[in-house]
Amino acid sequence: MITTATNTNDPVIVIRNMKKSFGDHKVLDGFNLTVNKGENVVVLGKSGSGKSVLIKCLMRLLEADAGEMKIFGISIPGLSNKALDELRSKIGFLFQGSALYDSMTVKENLEFPLRRHLNKLSKEDVGKLVGAALENVGLPDIENKMPSELSGGMKKRVGIARMLIIKPEVLLYDEPTTGLDPITGREINHLMLDVQKKFNTSSIIISHDMNCVRRTANRIVVLIEGKCYAEGTYNELKNSNDTSIKQFFD
Ligand SMILES: Nc1ncnc2c1ncn2[C@@H]1O[C@H](COP(=O)(O)OP(=O)(O)O)[C@@H](O)[C@H]1O
Ligand SMILES: [Mg+2]
Questions:
Q1: pTM for the full predicted model
Q2: Can you tell me the distance from the alpha carbon of 46 to that of 53, in angstroms, rounded to the nearest whole number?
Q3: Which residues have C-beta atoms less than 6 Å from ligand 1?
Q4: Which H/E stretch holds residue 91?
Q5: For ligand 1, atom 3, which residue shows the shortest CA distance?
Q6: Which tens digits make up the pLDDT trace of 24-54?
Q7: Among 24, 96, 167, 217, which residue has the fewest nearby CB atoms (within 10 Å)?
Q8: Domains of the chain, first to last
Q9: Are 182 and 213 in contact, with CB atoms under 8 Å apart?
Q10: What are 218-246's pLDDT values in tens digits?
């Protein structure tokens, strides 16, 4: 059984000295990150800087070469498959591009994360969970639609509903607004803030969309050359004189 950090002041996510190379290409080179309870931390970095690799190493979809990674105080590198599976079931992950299953209805997409619990849930309970998850993202009554019938913003909302259905305390968003028009992007930013407030979630948000960064970040970690190059609030970093940081705000 996994005990969570809900009632303690311990950080919910800790990453220390994470390293990951592909051949002789060093992508992460001693990266550090901490996320406290209820906090939205944005990892800001250029395209190709290793943001997706970072989140994949954290979830062990990729194996890091080195580093300490803890979620809820549980050390991730040594976990058995079973324990890893249990930990993953408490974490909501929004993949880059939202990645719905095109051949499944919205309802079937939302049931997917529940599959490990389906034998314990009645059809009615599942229906209620799906309905509530869609309501949380402002899309009631679209259960029977196919992803191809949805706009980009709606797909993203369904992706967020799918991450919320397991009632996670930790959310990992990979480029939640990339590819959306500015107005839809703004709606998704608002939704992410609503979710944070309503469920007191702790999140890593990966982005280089400065509107998303400005609106959703309680704190920003700048990823440059595989390291945490700088850390601060939006305003602190915006006022930086460092050219490597200034370029994100131009
Ligand atoms: N599975 C992989 N094999 C080899 N190289 C990879 C792999 N995944 C990512 N990379 C490389 O790692 C670097 C960082 O990728 P990524 O984390 O996806 O960047 P981004 O910051 O845009 O999310 C890129 O140069 C990419 O080509
Ligand atoms: Mg990426």
A1: 0.92
A2: 13
A3: 22, 27, 45, 47-53
A4: strand 91-94
A5: 22
A6: 999 999 999 999 999 999 999 999 999 999 9
A7: 24
A8: 1-90+170-250 (3.40.50.300), 102-167 (no CATH)
A9: no
A10: 999 999 999 999 999 999 999 999 999 99
Handedness of CA 44, 109, 85, 22 (dihedral sign): negative
Q: Which ligand places an atom closest to the C-alpha of 54? A: 1
Mutate which of 46, 52, 65, 172 for ligand 1? The one with the most ligand atoms within 8 Å of its CB, which is: 52
Cα 232 to ligand 1 centre (Å): 25
Which backbone phi and psi does 69 adopt, to 5 degrees? -135, 125
235 sits in which H/E element? helix 234-238
Instruction: Tell me, in angstroms, the distance from the centre of ligand 1 to residue 48's CA.
Output: 6
**Residue 93 alpha carbon to ligand 2 centre in Å:** 13
pLDDT digits (tens, 9 = 90+) for 131-147: 999 999 999 889 999 99
